[in-house]
Amino acid sequence: MSKQDFKILGTRPIRPDGLDKVTGKAMFGADKSVTGMLHARILRSPHAHAEIVSIDTSKAKALPGVKAVITGADFDELKNRWTGYTSQNCMAQDRALYDGHAVAAVAAISKSIAAAALKLIEVEYNLLPHVTDVDEAMKPGAPVLHVGVKARKLGDEVSGNTVGYYSFGHGDLETGFAEADEVIERSFKTAATHQGYIEPHACLADLGSDGRGELWCSTQGHYNVRLICAEILDIEESQLRVTASEIGGGFGGKTTVFIEPVALMLSRKSGKPVKAVMTRDEVFRASGPTMSSSMDIKIGMSKDGRITAAQAKLRYQGGAFPYQMVMMGAMSAFAAYDLDHVQSEGWDVMTNRPKMISYRAPGAPMAVYAVEAVVDELCQKLELDPIDTRLKNAAREGTKSSYGPTFKAIGLVEALEAAKAHPHYSAPLAENTGRGVSCGFWFNFGGQVSVSMAINADGTVNLIEGNPDIGGSRASISMMAAEALGIPLDRIRTIVGDTASVGFSDVTDGSRVTFAVGIATINAANAAIKEMCKRAAMIWEIDEDAVEWVDGAAQPTGHNAGEFPPMSLAEIAAVSGKTGGPIAGHHEGAPDKAGVSFGVHLVDVEVDPETGFTAVKRYTAFQDVGKAIHPAYVEGQIQGGAVQGIGWALNEEYIYGEDGRLQNPGFLDYRIPVASDLPMIDPVIIEVPNPGHPFGVRGCGETAIVPPLAAVSNGVSRAIGKRMFELPMSPPKILKAIG
Amino acid sequence: MRYIVAKNSRDAVALLGAGDGAQPIAGGTDVLVQMKLSGVAPSVLVDLKKIPGIRDIVLEDGGIRIGACVSGAEMGENDALKNMWPGVVEAVELIGSTQVQGRATMVGNLCNGSPAADSVPALLAAEAIARIEGQDGQRDIPVFGLLEGPGRTKLGKGDLITSVLLPKAAKNSADAYLRFIPRTEMDIAVASAGVNLQLDEAGVVAAAKVALGAVAPTAVLVEDAAAALIGTRLDEAAVKQCAEACEKACNPIDDKRGTIEFRTKVAGVMATRAAKIAFQRAGGLL
Amino acid sequence: MSKIHVSTYVNGDAVEFLCEPGETLLDVLRDRLNLTGAKEGCGTGDCGACSVMLDGRLVASCLVLGAEVEGSAVETVEGIATDDALHPVQKKLLEHAALQCGICTPGIVVAAKALLEKNADPSEEEVRYWLAGNLCRCTGYDKIIRAVLDAAAEMRGVSA
C-alpha cells in the first residue's frame, strides 16, 4: 500500500473535549449526582478464603438513613457460566474467595451513614486454606478455588486450579536445539501489577420496579456493561440505558463490571438512584489487576546469532475465577522472530486473589520480557550486537508466525533499523549504566462497531460512535471523518452515544478504536457522500453515476456528464430539505484486518551499586503504528505505555502476606512512576501502512507496554554485570544480585 | 466526632486531657489519612492552628524555635532556618508531595511516632528540644527523650508539643539528611540518616552526631558511628568504620518496603553519604 | 450528627456551607458546592488529583477538613480560566496534547499554576519534583512537563 497524501490526518489539532478537561467541567464517573440519590458502600472480606457461614444485616438495616442492604442472597444463579462468575465476583455467594471480595452492600442517605452501616453488618466466616502463588496453586493438593473447571487436556500432574492450557508452535525443538552453538534455559517470575488508572470505579444507577433502568458509569464499554448487568438483574437490554461517563483511565481495567450490578440491585431494592464509588483501597483489592507469572524459557542460538530453536512455558496466575489469558502470552512470546523450531505452552491458574482483567496487551509483556531477556543473555554470551541479532531473526512480511498466521506487511525490521541508526544507540555510556534493548508485539483487534453520521443543513456534521474515548479518539475519529468527507475539521462534532442512541459497539480495548471506529466512520461518510452525490445529480438532472465526490464537493465525473460547478457539502446540505430530506450515513460492521504492531525500545539505566536504586537516564521508543492519525496522541500512547512498563519493571507489585491479604492497597506502597522518576520519553513513529485499513491505521495503544520490561531488565543486567530473572527489580533485589 | 478550634494552648491541653480519644490536628496529613484508612474517627479533633504563635518561626538565644503548626513549605521558605539547619529543613521537605508540604508539620511528623519519620533523625542529630505544654504546665524535653516505639511517643495524656527549638548551631558546623526510597518521591523512608558535624579550625571533625531512621523501633543515635568520624576528615577508613557502626546499630524489620539485609546495608550508605554532605557544608574539604 | 457552619471564599466568592466534622474539603467542594473539578483518586494525599489552593498554598483537598477552611480563601480549577481566556498552563496542556484521559488534569493545572507563581523559570527537574505528587498514568509525564515549561516561557514573554 503506497503512502497517501492527507489534508487532515497527521496534523495535531486540539482535541474536542480538551477545554472541558482543563477547566474541570468534564464529567467523570463520580461527578454526576441526582436529587434523592443514595450513597452505596460495599463490605469486603478481610480473608483470602473463607466460607460465609452467615451474614446478619439486621442492625445495619435498622440504622436510620439506611434504605437498602443486599448480600449474595439477592443475586440469582445465572445460566451463563461466565456471567455467573462475573456476578459472583461482584458479590460473593457462599464463599469469599480473596481479600477484598464483596460480601454485602448498603445504600444510605449519606456517605457517613453508609459507612456506619457497614460496621453493623455481622459476618461469620469459617476460614479455609488459601493459595496466592501460581506455582503453589498448580501443585496437586493445593486448595482448589472451583471444582470441575480444570482444563480438559490436563492430568493429575497439576491441581484443579489449572483452568487453561494452550500450545502453539511449529518445527521440531530437538532438531533446532541440536543446531545451536549456545543454549540458555532460564526461569523467570513477574509480580501482578495493576492498571493504576487514577479514577476509581464509579457509577450512578437508577432501576425502577418497571424494569427500566439508567446507568451512568466509568467504563471502557457501556454495551458490555449493559449486556452483563441486564443478565445479572434479569432485565431486557433495551430497558437498561447505559451512558459512559468521561473515563479517567482504564488500560483494560474497566472492560468489565465490579460495582455496577451492586448499585443497580441497591437501586431496585430502595427505589432510589444509588451512587457507588470505590475507594482506592477497594480498587487495588477488588478490581482486576493483571496476572503474575512463572516462566521457563529455553533458546538456542548459533554463533552468528541465528535462533535455532525456542521454547516457552508460561504459568499465569489470574485470581479467583476461571479466565483465559495465558493464550495471549503464549502467542506473543516469539512473535517478533522468524523461527523454524518454536513451541510455547501456557497454563491459566486460579488463586485466592482478585480475578484478573485485561491490562494493556494482556498476557504479552511478561512472556516477551522472559524471551527478550534470554535473547539478550545469548547476545552477551556470544558477543553479538543486540539489534543486529534481532534483525537477523526478525519477523517480516511473509513470515509464518510462531502462533500460526503468516504476517502481512509489518514494521519490525523498520523499527529495528531506526533504533540502530538512532543517536541513542551509539551514545557513550556512563559508569554504572547499562543499555537495554527489547522488541515488543501486540495483535490489535477489530471487532463490532457502529457509527451514525448526520449531515446538518448548515453544512456541519454530527457523528455518534459507541466507544468510550479513553485517550483522544473523538479527535482521531473527527479527523478521519473530515478527511473522508473533505471538509474542515471544525465542522464535525463527534460524541460517544449511550446504548440507546447508536448500535452495538465492542469494548474500547485491543487498540481497536482508531482502526475499527475509523473504518466505520469512513464507511458512514461514504454512505453520506453517496447520498449527497445523488442529491447533486437530482439537482443537475444528470445520472447519479455521473457524479463524483472530490475535495468535499460533488462534481460531474467529466465533460460528458455535464458542465456544472462543484456543489459543496454545505450547499447540498442547505437544500436537503427540498431534495428528499435529511442526509445521513451510518455503518455497522466487524472489521477484522487490524494488523499487528511491533515496537523496539532502547533504554539507558544507571544503577547505584551501593543501594540498588535504578534511574532511567534515557529512553527511546520506536513503533510501527501504520498511520498516525493524530501523531501527538500516538506519541502519548507510546510514552504512556513505556512508562507503565518501566513501573512494572522496577517497583510495581502486588504484595501478599502469609495470611493472603494484600499488603499494599494504595498509591503509597503500590509504586507507580512519578514525574521525578523519569526522563523525557522519546517516541519515534514508524509508518508501515496496514493494508487492512483505508488510511493504513494499526492499533497503537498496547504494543508500547510490551518492550519496556525486558529493555529495563536487560539494561540493569548489563549495568551490574549480573542477569536479573524477576520483576519488579526493586532495590533490595538488585542489591542482593550485586552481592 | 466533634471538631473544636483551640483558642490557646491551655484550652487545647484541657480538651486533649478531658475525654478519651481526643486527638490534636495540625497539618492533618497523618490524622486524616488514618481516619480514612481505619474508618474510625477520634471523639474530638482539636485544631491547634489558631493557637497564638503556633505558626511562627522565631530566633531565640541564637537558635530557632519552630511552632508546632509551621508547615514544611513555610520552613523551606525561611532562609535563616535553612542556613542554620539545612539538614533539618531538607528532612522536613522530604515528607510527602508539594501538596502535603503545604500542610504537614515537623512536630506532627514527630508526634506520629513513625520509626521512618523523616524529620526525627535530623532532629536527633541537631539535638533539638521540644517544648511541651501539659496539664502541669510547660516543660522542655530533648526530642530524643520522646521516642518510644512504632506509633508511640512518651507524651502523656493532654501533653502537647507547642514548638521545637533548634539550638544555636556551633561554629563550622552543618547538618544533612538523606533517606533511601525506591522512587525519587512520594515514598516512606526505607532507611535514613541525619548527620550533624562540627569541624575544628583545621577542618577535622571535632564533634559529630549520627542518627538513623527506619532501621529500629524508633530513630536511633549511633554513638560509635559518630565516634568513627571524630578526629578525621572523613577518610576512607573513617567512612567505612562509620558505616559498620551504623549497620551494627540496626534492628530493622522485613516488610513490604525493604528487607532486614537491605535496610541494614543502606543505613550505613545513607549515613556516610549524609556525613560527606554535612562535612562539605561545614567547610570541610573531601 | 450536628453539622458545622462554615463561611469561606471559593474562587473569590463568599460561600457558606454546612458540613459534618469529619468531612473533607474535597467532599465539601464536590458534594455540597457542586465543584467536581477536583477529583478523588486516592483520598490519602498520594495522587494530587484533588489539588486546590488554600490561602495561597497548594494542598490536597482530601487532607483538609471542610471545617478547617472557616475564614479562608479556596481556589479550585474552576476558578482559573477567566473571561473565556484560558490560563497559559491550560492552553499549553491542550496544545501539547498533554492529557489523555484527563482525570489528573485539574490537579496538574492547579499545581503547575502554583509552581509558576512561585518560580517563573523552573528547570525541567524542578517541574518534575514539584509535580511528583500529581500522578498521571496515561502520558508518562513527558508532554505535561513540556507544556508546563512552555507555559512558563510564554508567561515570561519568551518563546520556548
Task: Give a structural overview.
The complex is a heterotrimer of chains A (739), B (286) and C (160). Helices cover 28% and strands 24% of the residues of chain A. With 739 residues, chain A is α+β, with helices and mostly antiparallel strands. Among the domains of chain A are: 37-128 and 202-277, Aldehyde Oxidoreductase, domain 3 (Alpha-Beta Complex); 129-191 and 290-394, Aldehyde oxidase/xanthine dehydrogenase, molybdopterin binding domain (Aldehyde Oxidoreductase, domain 4), CATH 3.30.365; 446-589, Aldehyde Oxidoreductase, domain 4 (2-Layer Sandwich). The longest helix of chain A has 28 residues, at 513-540. Chain A starts with 17 loop residues before the first helix and ends with a helix. The mean pLDDT of chain A is 97. With 286 residues, chain B is α+β, with helices and mostly antiparallel strands. Chain B folds into 2 domains: 2-46 and 56-166, 2-Layer Sandwich (Uridine Diphospho-n-acetylenolpyruvylglucosamine Reductase, domain 3), CATH 3.30.465; 188-281, 2-Layer Sandwich (Enolase-like, domain 1), CATH 3.30.390.50. Chain B is built from 11 helices and 14 strands. Chain B has helices at 9-18, 31-38, 72-76, 79-84, 86-93, 98-101, 106-111, 119-125, 223-229, 236-249, 260-281, and strands at residues 2-5, 22-25, 44-47, 57-60, 63-67, 129-134, 137-142, 147-149, 152-153, 160-166, 173-180, 191-199, 205-213, 220-221. Chain B has a 5-stranded antiparallel sheet. In chain B, a hairpin with a 2-residue loop joins strand 8 and strand 9. Chain B starts with a strand and ends in a 5-residue tail after the last helix. By secondary structure, chain C is α+β, with helices and mostly antiparallel strands. Chain C has 2 domains: 4-79, Roll (Ubiquitin-like (UB roll)), CATH 3.10.20.30; 88-156, DNA polymerase, domain 1 (Orthogonal Bundle), CATH 1.10.150. Chain C contains 5 helices and 5 strands, in the order ββαβββαααα. Chain C has helices at residues 25-32, 88-95, 105-118, 124-130, 142-156; strands at residues 4-10, 13-19, 51-54, 57-60, 73-75. A 5-stranded mixed sheet of chain C has the order 2-1-5-3-4, sandwiched between helices. The longest helix of chain C is centred in the last third of the chain and has 15 residues, at 142-156. Classes of the chains: A alpha+beta (739), B alpha+beta (286), C alpha+beta (160). The interface between A and C is large, with 61 and 63 residues.
